[in-house]
Amino acid sequence: MRRWATIRVAALATALLLPLLVAAAALAHEVRPAYLELREQEPGTFAVLWKVPMRGDMRLALKPEFSGKTRPSLPAVRILSGAAIETWYLEAPALRGQTLTIAGLAATMTDVLAHIEYADGSTWTQRLTPNAPSAAIPARDTILNVAGLYLLLGIEHILFGIDHLLFVFALLMLTQGIGSLVKTITAFTLTHSITLALATLGLVNVPLAPVEAVIALSIVFVAAEIVHRDQGREGMAARAPWLVAFGFGLLHGFGFAGALSETGLPAGHVPLALLFFNVGVEIGQLLFVAAVLALAAAVLRIPLPLPTWGYRVPAYAIGSVAMFWTVQRLAMF
C-alpha cells in the first residue's frame, strides 16, 4: 500500500513538474544574473566590471546608469563562458547618494547584483530586479543587508535550480521511512556544503561544464535505480540512498559554487555571504521537501486509481528529462 501511495504522489508531482522542467531548460540562460562591480582605485575613480548573460551570440540589452555626474572611459569587451564582460573606468567624485538604474532590466527575467567597494574599505551590495531596477546608493552598507541578500539568493537559486530539485525528488522516491529520509537529506546537505565552500574560496577548482553534465547524469542514475527497484532488482542505491546523496552531493556543491561565482561575492564580506547563501540553499531545499511531503499527505486522501503501467511514468519521465539535459550540456563543451 505504501509503495502505491508513493507512486501516486510521484505520478502527480511529475505531471505537475514536467512542464516546468521543459520551460526551465529553455529559459535557463536568460534567468542567470548579471553582475556589476565598482572598485575605487583612487578618490573618485572606479574600475568597473559589467558581466551580462548571453544567449548564443546575443547578449541582454542591459546598461548601468547613474543619476549624478559621472564620466566613463571607453569599455573593453570580451566573451567568456556564456557572458559578455565589459571593463572600464568611471570618474564619479560623488557616487554616494546617487541612484543606480539598470536600463532595460524591466523587460527581462534576470536580476543584477551590484557591488561597490570604496577605497576606505566600506562597501555596498544590492540586488536589482525587473520590478525594482533602481536603487539609491547609501553612505554605508550593513552586515545585515549582505546577510539578507545572500540568504534570499540561496533560497531562490535552489528553488529555480530545477536539476537540483529533481535530484532531491528522485532521492525522496528511493527513501523508505523517516529515518532514511533524514539521513539522505543530511548527507546531501553536508557534502554539497563542503564542496560549495571549497570551490567558492578557491581551494578547489573544477571546470563547470563537465560538472553540470555529471549532475544531469546523477539524476539519470537515480531514476534508473528507481526502475530497478520497482522491477524487483533492488540495488545499493535503494537500500542506502544516503550513500548516493553523499557521493553526488559533492558534485552538486560544485554546481552551486558555479552559480555563486556568476553572482559574485562582496570582497569585504566573503565568509558571511558564503554562509548565508548556503543557509538559503538549505532553507529552499527543506521547503521543497516539505512541499512534496504535504502533497503526499493530500494525495493519500484522494481516490486516484492508476493503470498498471502508471508506476513506470515518474521514473521514466525524470530520467528522460535528465538525459535531455545531459546531451544538451555535453553539446555545450
Automatic annotation (TrEMBL):
<dbReference type="Pfam" id="PF13795">
    <property type="entry name" value="HupE_UreJ_2"/>
</dbReference>
<feature type="transmembrane region" description="Helical">
    <location>
        <begin position="309"/>
        <end position="327"/>
    </location>
</feature>
<protein>
    <submittedName>
        <fullName>Membrane protein, putative</fullName>
    </submittedName>
</protein>
<feature type="signal peptide">
    <location>
        <begin position="1"/>
        <end position="28"/>
    </location>
</feature>
<feature type="transmembrane region" description="Helical">
    <location>
        <begin position="149"/>
        <end position="174"/>
    </location>
</feature>
<feature type="transmembrane region" description="Helical">
    <location>
        <begin position="181"/>
        <end position="203"/>
    </location>
</feature>
<keyword id="KW-1133">Transmembrane helix</keyword>
<feature type="transmembrane region" description="Helical">
    <location>
        <begin position="209"/>
        <end position="228"/>
    </location>
</feature>
<dbReference type="InterPro" id="IPR032809">
    <property type="entry name" value="Put_HupE_UreJ"/>
</dbReference>
<feature type="transmembrane region" description="Helical">
    <location>
        <begin position="240"/>
        <end position="260"/>
    </location>
</feature>
<keyword id="KW-0732">Signal</keyword>
<keyword id="KW-0614">Plasmid</keyword>
<feature type="transmembrane region" description="Helical">
    <location>
        <begin position="272"/>
        <end position="297"/>
    </location>
</feature>
<keyword id="KW-0812">Transmembrane</keyword>
<keyword id="KW-0472">Membrane</keyword>
